[in-house]
Amino acid sequence: MSYLMADPSPAVTLDDVLGAQKMLSGVARATAMEGSRHLSRLVGAPVHFKCENLQRTGSFKLRGAYVRIAGLLPEERAAGVVAASAGNHAQGVALASSLLGVASTVFMPVGAPLPKVAATREYGAEVRLHGQVVDETLAAAQEYAERTGAVFIHPFDHRDVIAGQGTVGLEILEQCPEVRTIVVGMGGGGLAAGIAVGVKALRPDIRIVGVQAAGAAAYPPSLAAGHPLALDAPVTMADGIKVGRPGDVPFTLVEELVDEVRTVSEDELSSALLLCLERAKLVVEPAGASPVAALLSDPAAFDGPVVAVLSGGNVDPLLMQKVLRHGMVAAGRYLSLRLRLTDRPGALATLLVVLSEADANVLDVSHVRTNPRLGLTEAEVEVHLETKGPVHCEEVAAALREAGYGVIA
């Protein structure tokens, strides 16, 4: 898919990032750096979180959007700006435009989470819901730009946007000068490219590792081919990095400056989000948790001190509920079983006593008495349990078998 307004000049320099840092003074927060004792133990070296989930609008996107819009000519500002996004970029453009006194129109998919739509409106944008998928929304925004003259603000494929995102890297060097590895999630590549520009110019010894969701990993094949390639149908819960094709401008920078690109599974993303919530007390969206997922999946691969960039915290509550349950399953803390038992009074109560003695927390019970596969005196029960981990799951199953229950699944 083609994008409007891709910058023909891919070169982004340290001076560009330093200029963006001055421009963002008093606009973007210098977000906190928090240590993670749990990950530090796993990696065997200090691990810190760069908390862009606590940035204004809930993600790093404000940085690039503000620098891009602030650089428009007066006549361009007068025409207004337009963007397409399901969430973070929408809010970043809306707030940046409001701060700069520029009218903004943001196209969002019809199914965009209501909290994100409401926040974008509250930041001052006119929101138009169009299309079922982001590609349709993007096409509508591009058509609007061509028809009205509004400037299309690309989420990652512009040098000003990349320079703005690169200020995250400068803050990391100020807050953790001893850092040896920076791990950052990647969709189109704007954040990773910007961080790499600023960091590598000042500290070429620091290793930059990009992380993509395995179901939306366009960078590995693109880097192998030497040019951006498009995925047919990217699939991942991490909508913040669900991008089908690398941007032309960030691709050039990533190819030159990013040391490695890794992929993580949906299970690993879920486990990482759960860890951020439970251990760090930080609400992080799946895309923002991708660096943590990479650390969890292969802790020995990262030289410390490590900084993991938590790029955003705008997670829909309904998605959070699903992801947390998925994360509990991946961590072995959620167990689903089907059991056969004799259909007689008190049988279910007896089963629950066994589960209680095994210290399993019963979340849900489904009791089936009428089914062609059941005998005349049989019943089937499906139970959903909260457990303490994989070992406890095995102990619960063993306790049920010892009590005479046939565990089907």
From TrEMBL:
GO terms for biological process: isoleucine biosynthetic process; L-serine catabolic process; L-threonine catabolic process. This is L-threonine dehydratase catabolic TdcB. Belongs to the serine/threonine dehydratase family. Its cofactor is pyridoxal 5'-phosphate. CDD domains: ACT_ThrD-II-like (cd04886), Thr-dehyd (cd01562). Its EC number is 4.3.1.19. Pathway: Amino-acid degradation; L-threonine degradation via propanoate pathway; propanoate from L-threonine: step 1/4; Amino-acid biosynthesis; L-isoleucine biosynthesis; 2-oxobutanoate from L-threonine: step 1/1. In the native structure, TdcB is in a dimeric form, whereas in the TdcB-AMP complex, it exists in a tetrameric form (dimer of dimers). Coiled coil: none annotated. Residues 336-409 form the ACT domain. The keyword Disulfide bond does not apply. Signal peptide: none annotated. InterPro entries: ACT-like_dom_sf, ACT_dom, ACT_ThrD-II-like, Ser/Thr_Dehydratase, Ser/Thr_deHydtase_PyrdxlP-BS, Thr_deHydtase_catblc, TrpB-like_PALP, TrpB-like_PALP_sf. Keywords: Allosteric enzyme, Amino-acid biosynthesis, Branched-chain amino acid biosynthesis, Isoleucine biosynthesis, Lyase, Pyridoxal phosphate. SUPFAM superfamilies: ACT-like, Tryptophan synthase beta subunit-like PLP-dependent enzymes. It is an enzyme of class 4 (lyase). The keyword Membrane does not apply. One of its GO terms (molecular function) is threonine deaminase activity. It comes from the Bacteria.
